[in-house]
Amino acid sequence: MRLDRPVEKSDPSGPSGGRAHCCPDRARYRLVSRSMPSLPRAEPSMSQQEKGASMIDTRSTPTVGRFEVRTTSDSHFGWIRTRLSLERTMMSWLRTATALIGFGFAIVQFFEHLQQTPEVRSAYLPNAEIYLGLALIACGVLALIISIWQYRRTVRYLWGGSFAPIAGMAQEPMNSPVLAVGILLIFIGLFAFFAVLFRLV
Predict the structure, then answer these.
(1) Per-residue pLDDT tens for 138-164?
(2) Alpha helix (H) ranges present in the chain?
(3) Which of 33, 66, 107, 190 to pair with 53, CA 20 to 30 A apart?
(4) What domain range includes position 129?
(5) What pTM, to 2 d.p., does this model score?
């Protein structure tokens, strides 16, 4: 006759609290996870923008003193935008100088015809409008000379030195029509100045 051994009951207040008997899978998972070595953390993958930036040709030319010039398409189109902004600046100077020359000449003509009207009282300073017109015309001519000098200096800077690989759409700089218009306006302003000064008109 076989006697069965009595089954011992676990004390829930013991050190394991009965968790090992009720959840054996969880206890086994803890033992396995502690025994396994930690795997190295995967590095984050490069984004598409970083991959594209790494594939761009980053060839560079010698520095111009303050910064480095890179022969990329972005640098080339940036140069073209700078060149066109220089043209717009020169055209603004042309409009300003034309307004000064024309306004100075018109003031002289207006006040001279006004003084010839019999109903108008004679002015205290009859030559004031001549001085004012000459000053405006001279300012217009001087603005043209300074703007053309600044324009030529900036063009030489953009085409010279290390900017040559990214400069322009041709090997040599092309003359702009704004330069010819500026020179023509200088001669027109000089003619208006001497016409007012010697009363030629």
Answers:
(1) 999 999 999 999 999 999 998 887 888
(2) 19-22, 24-35, 48-55, 73-115, 128-159, 177-197
(3) 66
(4) 73-197
(5) 0.64
